[in-house]
Every structure is written in structure tokens, then in C-alpha cells.
Specification:
The structure is a homodimer.
Chain A (H helix, E strand, L loop, with lengths): L2 E6 L7 H16 L3 E6 L5 H12 L5 H25 L4 E4 L6 E3 L8 E4 L2 H8 L3 E5 L2 E3 L5 E3 L5 H12 L3 E6 L20 E3 H6 L1 H4 L5 H9 L4 E5 L7 E4 L13 E5 L2 E10 L4 H11 L4 E8 L5 E9 L3 H16 L3 E5 L2 E7 L9 H11 L6 E5 L2 E7 L3 H11 L13
Parallel strand pairs in A: 1-2, 1-9, 2-6, 3-6, 9-11, 10-12
Antiparallel strand pairs in A: 4-5, 7-8, 11-12, 13-18, 14-16, 14-17, 15-16, 18-20, 19-20
Helix pairs in contact in A: 1-3, 2-3, 5-8, 9-10
């Protein structure tokens, strides 16, 4: 007998029929003798409907009242799911975030969980009940209803699993697991049996579509085994673990992430003096523009440097203006170049830590395909390269095969 | 400076525009320096929408989950109204029944209020805030959300007014007060400035369309001045008071109630032996049929009796069957007569207590119009007569004039 926390998102409970289907799924686990806590979001569309009502009344309502309003969405779902479970003979009770004792700080609309009181939950579970809990919401010290921000139901699931020391927190989504890369780009993409928390975080461009990053961090911090599964079909999904344990066949690379949402900017022949980097990036950060990759090369003469970085494509024009109008006049000299036809491709894998040669193999594979690398940055478990956008699919597919990620491929990654 | 509890029903908050109008009305009172607690129902249609969702899932859900579900309706309204107040510069905070500490028993879907904790409310009011409270709901000792049953928002308003010792509980409805009789039947019907709790209870057929009887009883018990007003136009409405105090011009009759929803049944020549009444009415009550008027006359020979009573028209056929199949065989003898073309007309007024002759005047007025009286029953502040249904309007109008109730009429009721 295991204790599972199962989280179903808005699409999974988006209609009466889907709520009934979730009840059937929960019943199957219950019938196997497991203890089940179910966490649900608002029915898809409901939160937007409520926000729409609010915006007709007040374009700047207090966050406290917004939380009071939108928290009703999950409350509707928990009661309907409990009714659906009762209908098929499963004893079930629903609880709001406040009732189950999910204590948060008072940062309305983006509250953080501080404590969960599990006494009542445990009593119900010991009585054989399925407990249905409203995701995304809690209560502060003064009894005000708070919400964790959009997508926060994942966090509720993980936090409950941590507090209850559950055997697994299962996040049901519209995909059947985490893949080595996006199957729409690489048809040989393979579902991973397991992936580490660090890898999920580094694969943000893949992972963020499936799970809230915050819930993954939370799971890592509290050692909660997290599993991503499909709401609509049966299957083992992907287990997200704190650390890859005793895995004899630990793969070198777990997945390939990519995005085409960045633009590259370069300042050529910038004087190589202390503090130049902050003089370049300071005005950009001041404009609330986020910088991703940063690379600085010393030029052959040793007196000037080429400084490159990437920003979101939507910030490309604004960044060019800041460089031209503010940065270049202040640091002196230099020529600006910009390119927004680029793609970032990243290899991610904890196996990289203990293996040399991943980068050189990556560069060799890309060179063999005639793909020029425009910029490189590395972390402990990730290597990212910038390439021309038109080569993105080719790069992902070549690397996917070369690093043995293809479905049914025999691994050959001895680098 | 007064403290008002103002209750707005589902129609009054049925749309974004109406919620904004309620906010404006509340602001006007606030601007006059009064402290305001607002109690609101769910937006009209919302409770039925939620019940509809539930019925698609489970035709017999537990009452606890129904309360969890439908209580979201008021929660949406309180947050939207608080936002609307904030938008027009009124500091406002919303509270669910649970948050404001409306403690009830655990009789889900028909809970009774046991206690209200007013500390937080008082603090907010002293801070100059308008407090918006969800009607119709509370919380039991274990923290489960309960509801007071349909229409229970009136009761919430009265209970809060009692707990806060408010100067007045104002119930905003779609009529502008309590009338001497239904204006659709008698064009001379007049709005009453005041009416006593007892009169409201006796005028159920008028009053129940405006106010929940239970909230009127509650107001009487706790001496809460209750005022019925229109949501949509300004005006003084009708004040419902515990006792008519020092009213020099206390009217003999306050109003005329009527209904055409009853049917009359008579057993003729029933043996006049002890216990015969319970033998007749027992089997009817056992079938959950409610009996209204009961009249028993001794017949001239002193050995038999004529026994008459009224039931709802919808129970007419079933009652006839019970009399024929069960009662007459068991009590022996007798002949049954039934009539469902009857109307009940009642004069109501606390002034009746200290005045003789109301009944004789009533009978005289009806006789002058050629209206035959089929049955009479009296209470301390009410006289009811059964007449042919076709005379109903004529009877109401004649009595309305004769007892000085007509708008702009000079009172002449010296009986």
C-alpha cells in the first residue's frame, strides 16, 4: 500500500465528463489498496471567466479580493470531483486550501506555502477516504484566502506530498511524460523513464511546458518523487528524482532543449578595461531586460574585447537602442552587431559531470552537418550553442542520434 | 452615525452593472457617515448553474459537498462587490461566512446559526471599512462549510444585525415595501410605513414573497428593526418592528392576505366521540399532507359532528382518497364533500387584539356584497374566511376600503 498525491490540472477537469474520468482513474488506484490525495485546479476557462468579471468592475482590484474571487474556481472542482467519486462508490471528502491548513505568507496572488497541517488529512486517509484538495490556494495567518499564482496547483501537490511523506506525487498532464526533446521537431524523441530535478530545471524550455519550475525545485528540496503522467491514457510517465541513484546505465545526455526566442547582440572592439561588462549590461538590466547567455572574448591585440550576449527577441530593438544611445557613447569605441535569426540548442544531462568530451563531440557533430557555432556557454550539466535559426531542426536531430537518444537506438555515447 | 446591515439578494447583484449600482447605493449611506455591513447572495442564476453541474455528476451528492459547491456563489459576489466599492473610493473588505465566524450546526443545506463572532467585523468597521459578508453560509464546529438553505441570506443579515446590535437591518428587494394587500388585486393597496413582526408572520401569503419567514421570526426574537426597501429606487420602504410602540393611530387592520391554493374537505355526520379528530387527521398527516384551517361543529342532534379542514390544492385528490379508503371506514358513517374552488381571505392586524367587532364588521361587509362565508377561523391578530374563489378580488377590495386601508382614504374604522 502506497500513499499517492495525484494532481489534475484544469484541462483534465475541464468538463463534467472529464471530472468523471478522473474519478474513475482515482478509483483504480484506490481499488489497488493505495491511499490517495487528489489535488485539482479550476475547470479550464473558469479562472479566466472570473478574472473577466473582475476586470469589468475594477481594473486594479486589491490582490486580496482577487484571491477571494479566483479561489472559488478550485472549490467548485473539489466538490464536483468528490461527488463523482461518491457516485462510483468511493468515500471522498473535499477540502479548500484553508480547510486543509495550507498556511501561506500574505503575498496575495503569489503566496508561498509556509506550513501544512496534515492531522485531519491523515485521519481521513486512515478512515479509507480519498481526500480531494483545492490546488493553488491557501490561507494566511489572519485567515485571508491566498493563491499561489497561476499554475500553483503543481506546488500544492508537491507540498502536500512532502508534508505527508507520500510515496509519489503524480502530476497528470496532457503529455505522457518528459521527452528527450520535442517530438514535433525530432520524430525519434523518446520518453524518459527518469530524469533528475537538475535536468528538469536545465531543460526549462521543454520542462516548463509540463511542470511549474517552482514545483520541481520544491520536489528537489524536499526529496519528493515526482511523476509526470497523462490524464487521458495509462502509462508509467516519467519519474523526476532528486538524484540519479545507482543507475548503472546512467546516460551521458538526458535531453536536448532548444528555443528560437532569443536574439544575439555583440559589441566589437570594446576597450578591455575593468568594469566594462557592468557598464554594458547595467543600463540594459535597468530597463528590466533579462539577459541569458554572456560571452566575452579578448581580441588578438589584447587591448579590446568582443562582448556578446542574448536577450529575448521581444527586447531586441529596445536593447539595440540602449547600446547605441547609452552604452557605446559611455564605454567608447566599438561597433554593434545584432542577429535575431538564431536558435539556442542545449544538451542537458547529469552524466556530463563525470564525462569529458561532450562539448567536443557536440561541436564535431554540428561541424559534420556544416552548422556554424556562433556562441557557446556551459554549465555543470548543460552545454548551449547558438546557431543559425534555419539549422535548428537539423542540429537537434543530429545530436539526438549522435548522443544515443533515439527511440530503440543502441547507446554509443563513449564520447 | 448609525450601523446598518444591508442585504442585497440575487437579482440585485445579478450582473456587473447591478453590482456597481449596489456599490453606489452603499457609498451614499457610507458618505452620510454610517457604518455599513453588506450581506449579499449569489448572482441570480449562479446557484442553479452550480446545482445543474452537480446533478450531471451525482443525483444524490452528500449535503456537505453540495454546501462546498454552492457556497462559492456568494463568495464570487462578495469579492466583486468589494472590488466595485474600492473602485469608487470606498474602503471595503469581503468575508465568507466561515471567515466572519458565522458558526452553525452541522445540518448541511439547512443549517441554523448558533453564534457569530463579531470582533473582526467591529475592528474593520471602526477602521472605517465597509464589510461585505457572504449570505446564506456559515461553518460548523469542525470547519465544514454549511449553508442555511435557499433564501437564507435574509437570515444572515438579521443574525449579523442582532450580533452587532445594528440600528437597522435593511433588506433590499424588488418591491419597495410591504403593502396592505397585493396591488395587482387591489389598485388602492398602500405601502405600510411600519408593520409588526407578528403581522408579517400572519400575512405569510404576502410577506413570504418579500422576506423569508425565518428571518422575520429571528428579527422578532432578537428585537432587530428590519426594513424592506427597493434595490432599484430610493424610498423609505417598510419598517418591521417587534412591537407597535406608542402608536396613537394604531390601525385596526394592517393588511389583507389571501390565497387560492387551498381546497376544503368536509366529513358530515361523523360520530362525535373522543379522539375522532385525530382519527380523521392522523392518516392525512402520516402521508405528509399539511393541514391549514380546521373547523369542527356539533350537529343539532348532539351525537354527530361536521368536521371541515383545508389542504393545499395539490393534495386535494390524495386527501379525498385517504378519507374514502381509510378514514370513513375507521370512524364509521359520514359523507365526504370536497371543494377546490375556494379562496382564503384574511384580515391581519395587531390592533385587532384590543378591538371587538372586527369579525362582525368583516362578515357584514362580505354579506353586503353577497359573498357567502364557507368557513371561519381566527387567531389573536387574524381572521380568515373561506369564500368561493370567484369572489376573491371583490372581497379583498371591499374589505380594503371598509377597513380604511385605501391609499389616501380617511380612516373610519370605529367598528
Amino acid at each position: 500500500m502506497a500513499l499517492y498525491v495525484q494532481k489534475f490540472g484544469g484541462t483534465s477537469v475541464g468538463s463534467v465528463e472529464r471530472i468523471k474520468a478522473v474519478a474513475e482513474k482515482v478509483k483504480r488506484f484506490r481499488d489497488e489498496g493505495h491511499q490517495i490525495v487528489v489535488v485539482v485546479s479550476a475547470m479550464s476557462g473558469e479562472t479566466n471567466r472570473l478574472i473577466g468579471l473582475a476586470s469589468e468592475i475594477n481594473d486594479d482590484p486589491t490582490p486580496r479580493e482577487m484571491d477571494m474571487l479566483v479561489s472559488t474556481g478550485e472549490q467548485v472542482t473539489i466538490s464536483l470531483l468528490a461527488m463523482a467519486l461518491q457516485k462510483i462508490g468511493v468515500d471522498a471528502t473535499s477540502y479548500t486550501g484553508a480547510q486543509v491548513g495550507i498556511r501561506t505568507d500574505s503575498a496575495h496572488t503569489k503566496a508561498r506555502i509556509q506550513h501544512i497541517d496534515t492531522n485531519d488529512l491523515r485521519e481521513d486517509l486512515d478512515d479509507g477516504k480519498v481526500v480531494v484538495v483545492a490546488g493553488f490556494q491557501g490561507v494566511d495567518e489572519e485567515g485571508n484566502i491566498t493563491t499561489l499564482g497561476r499554475g500553483g496547483s503543481d506546488t500544492t501537490g508537491v507540498a502536500l506530498a512532502a508534508a505527508l511523506k507520500a510515496d509519489e506525487c503524480q502530476i497528470y498532464t496532457d503529455v505522457d511524460g518528459v521527452y528527450t526533446t520535442d517530438p514535433r521537431v525530432c520524430s525519434k524523441a523518446r520518453r524518459l523513464e527518469t530524469v533528475t530535478v537538475e535536468e528538469m530545471l536545465e531543460m526549462a524550455s521543454l520542462g516548463s511546458k509540463i511542470l511549474q519550475i517552482r514545483s520541481v525545485e520544491f520536489a528537489g528540496k524536499y526529496n519528493v518523487p515526482l511523476r509526470v503522467l497523462s490524464s487521458f491514457e495509462d502509462g508509467p510517465g516519467t519519474l523526476i528524482v532528486a538524484e540519479e541513484e545507482d543507475n548503472m546505465e546512467e546516460p551521458l545526455i538526458s535531453g536536448i532543449a532548444f528555443n528560437v526566442n532569443e536574439a544575439k547582440l555583440t559589441l566589437l572592439n570594446t576597450p578591455d578595461i575593468p568594469g566594462v561588462a557592468s557598464k554594458i549590461l547595467g543600463p540594459i538590466a535597468d530597463s528590466n531586460i533579462e539577459i541569458d547567455m554572456i560571452v566575452q572574448n579578448v581580441s588578438p591585440d589584447g587591448n579590446t574585447t568582443d562582448f556578446s550576449f542574448t536577450v529575448a527577441k521581444t527586447d531586441f530593438k529596445a536593447t539595440q537602442r540602449i547600446l547605441t544611445e547609452t552604452v557605446i557613447p559611455s564605454v567608447g569605441g566599438g561597433e554593434m552587431r545584432g542577429d535575431d535569426n538564431i536558435a539556442k540548442v542545449s544538451l542537458v544531462g547529469v552524466g556530463m559531470r563525470s564525462h569529458a568530451g561532450v562539448a567536443s563531440k557536440m561541436f564535431r557533430v554540428l561541424a559534420e552537418e556544416g552548422i556554424n557555432i556562433r556562441m557557446v556557454s556551459t554549465s555543470e550539466i548543460k552545454i548551449s550553442v547558438l546557431i543559425d535559426e534555419k539549422f535548428m531542426e537539423l542540429a537537434v536531430r543530429s545530436l539526438h542520434t549522435a548522443f544515443g537518444l533515439d527511440a530503440e537506438a543502441i547507446s554509443d555515447e563513449t564520447a
